Amino acid sequence: MASVNLDLFNKNARRVKMANIAQTVNVLQAMILTQDDKLVKTPSFYVFKMYKVHHDATLLPSTISTENYTLEDESVPALSATASKDANGKIHVTITNVNPNKALKLSRI
Fold first, then answer.
1. Are 6 and 47 a contacting pair, CB within 8 Å?
2. Structural domain boundaries of the chain?
3. Mean pLDDT value across the chain
4. Cα angle vertex 77, ends 83, 99, to 5°?
5. What is the gyration radius of the CA atoms in the chain, in angstroms?
């Protein structure tokens, strides 16, 4: 999932100074698909667009408590999230539900 990777990059911004998508058109995880004179923006395009708010922003510490999503022998947290504050002081939070089979409810503590 693109969003989970972008969360990781944002959370580790002190170590990850730059991250790029290697190929953007007509490949696996492409941002754009083309065929003849047709063009379509993929879900990855919209995830990257959604995460633009974190560019040049300040990472905010955040903690999320969630159940795990398990598939076969692998288990990961069912929610992934990151937060940042932009130059205007606006706070941005992005949250991903990793479980494709279950809607999860959020609550603020």
1. yes
2. 2-97
3. 91
4. 100
5. 16
